[in-house]
Structures are given as C-alpha cells and as structure tokens.
Amino acid sequence: MKRQLILEDGTVFVGKGFGSEIGLTGEVVFNTGMTGYQEILSDPSYCEQIVTLTYPLIGNYGINRDDFESIEPVVNGLIVKEYCDAPSNFRSSMALDEFLKQKNIPGLAGIDTRKLTRKIRQHGTLRGKMCSMDVNVQEIVDSLKKTELSTDQVKKVSTKRAYPSPGRGHKVVLVDFGMKHGILRELTMRNCDVLVVPYNTTADEILRLNPDGIMLSNGPGDPKDVPEAIEMIQGVLGEVPLFGICLGHQLFALACGADTEKMKFGHRGSNHPVKELATNRVSLTSQNHGYTVREESLPGTGLSVTHVALNDGTVEGLKHGIHPAFTVQYHPEASPGPEDANYLFDRFIELMETNKKVGNELCQNA
Questions:
Q1: CB 306 within 8 A of CB 317
Q2: pTM score, whole prediction
C-alpha cells in the first residue's frame, strides 16, 4: 500500500504505508536515537508531531508491555527508512504495525529519511500530512500553509484528576504537563509519596497539600501557551524545593522573568552531550524539546546557568540564587537513553532533606 508524506513547502515523499490508514497532520520532527521507538511513540511530549527516526531499521524488537511512557500515544505519525514486520525479542508481545493500527497512528516506510532529516535541519521543522495516493497535492500544501499548531497540547495530555503513587518517604507533588512515566518511576524508586496533579492546579491547592517538594514534568508545545502554570510556579517558588524537567524547566524560567524561543529543529535523541559547569562533568543525555531558554534573558532573574549543551551551547540547566529550585532541559530519567544524569533525582531528595532540616531548626529556635 503506497502512502505519501506531503510537506508545507510542496515536497512529497512516497513510500509504503503501515500502521493505521488514517491521514493525520502534524509538525514533522526527527529523533536520532538508535533504539527506544516504543518509548518515543508513547512520550506525551511528541503530541501531534510526526516523528522521523534516523536509525534505518525500526520494529525489529517489536512492542512489549513494560516500556511505555504513557498509556495512550499522542503522536500523529511515524516515518522510518525500513520497517521490520518480523520482530524477534523474548519480550515482544506484538509487531509495531499491529500496535500502530490499534492506536490509529499512520506509519510510512521506504523513503529517504536522511534527505528528510537534512531538509528539517536546513529549513527547520515543517508541517506535513500523511496521505493516500489519490489526494490533490497542491490542495494539501495550501491547507498545510494555513494550518496553525495547537496551543492546548498540555491540556490534551495532562491528567484530568489528581492521583497518588504512595510511598513512605518525602511527599512530592508532581505537576503533570505531559509526564513520562519514567519520572514517576524514579521518584517511587526513592520511596517518595507522590501525588500527580493536573497542569492547571493552583499554587494554593498545591501548598495546601503540604508537600516536601514539587516536581514540574516534561510536556509538549510552547511553554508560553501555559500561563496558568507560570502563575502557579511564581506562587510556590521559595515555599518548598522545586525540580523541573524539560517543559518544566522552560516554565520555571518564564516564571522567574526569563524568556524562551522556538529552536530551528530542536533536540530529539538519546546521545546529546551536556556539561555541568560546576564540575565540568559531561553526561550523555536523552532530549526531546523544540523550545529553549534564551541565555541573554537571564540577567536580573535570580537564575544562573548550571548546564550547557556541547553541540550548540544552549541552556540545559538552571538554578535559583536564593530559593531551593533547579531545573534541567534534558531527561535525567532517560527512557530511552543513557542514565548518566540519574543522580539529579538524588540531588532533589537531598534538597528536600536539607530544607526540612532548616525548617525544623527554625521552629526549635522560634
């Protein structure tokens, strides 16, 4: 079954369709990871995007029950060079094609993914649509040029109701902007008593829960489209320790008065080198973001840069000069990718313990 990808600049890629036959529109991006397509497909940060995988062979280890990062995938398409329809892995429970059909996600194989990736790198991310062969290409191109990207992606992927993940350790409120389950796994592994709350939970509602710390999760889209989250962060900053990841990092920067901007083609992959400035330690990191904090906007905000990307020098980590709060642009929970930066969750635990100790001493001296 032939299928085509039509881009807003008029470029057409014709290949073999797999997965769902539905035609979907989305922002076409690329990911450079060699493995982890199941985690990528189920990462809520890819909401309404069509993901191109640069590694040439995809599907060879199938789909298993354990490696999902969310319950319902929200990607609008998958593009690969070669699709394997006969997976071989002891954990595999179904083929990738079957999974995509179940979740109504169209796939396209057999195109020149290197050419597509180079086009995105040269021109930036492009809107595109997966189509059957009988459509009018020019009509699709005209429609794509008029298509506006969604501004409510966080609302679509965030939990609608708060729910607990009980533990006997520190009480953490995890604000879900499109949370990967890997973040929740890391907190529960450290015996945290986690309460996951919706993206639009207010500062007062969070503080009434009396948490030991607040985690700001990853998520999709432009951070400036979530003003209620910015207001919430301003209300809790300085009250309890705070740790933000990816979109949470960008929202934290905006709440402190810094600015963000859209990147040309973003960082998406599992091998991005990041340097921690305090130690000169370099970690390989998993990343998935299309926006970045503008370093020139930081003076006067009380924020300082803690980590930088070695590939392009962009901001990868921040900390507040007064309040117990720090954030990173990358994914320390990995899934997929290396776990070099996993220690940041331990740093968050230490920050909560230190803050508790200071609070107890103040109470004793009062």
A1: yes
A2: 0.96
Does 246 participate in catalysis according to the annotation?
yes
333 is catalytic: yes
Is 247 annotated as contributing to ligand binding?
yes
CATH code: domain 154-363 is: 3.40.50.880
Instruction: Assess whether 323 carries a catalytic annotation.
Output: no
pLDDT per residue as tens digits for the range 279-301: 999 999 999 999 999 999 999 99
Choosing from 246, 256, 272, 316, the catalytic residue is: 246
Average pLDDT over all residues of the chain: 96
Q: How many whole angstroms separate alpha carbon 213 and alpha carbon 317?
A: 18
Boundaries of every domain in the chain: 2-146, 154-363
Give the CATH fold of the 2-146 domain: Glucose Oxidase; domain 1 (3.50.30)
Task: Consult the annotation and say whether 19 binds a ligand.
Answer: no
The pLDDT tens digits of the residues spanning 231-262 come to 999 999 999 999 999 999 999 999 999 999 99
Spell out a b/e string for 53-75, using b for 16 or more CB atoms within 10 Å of the CB, else e. Answer: bbbeebbbbbbeeebbbbeebbb
User: Which tokens hold the place of 18?
Assistant: 């797999």
**Comparing 2-146 with 154-363, is the CATH topology the same?**
no
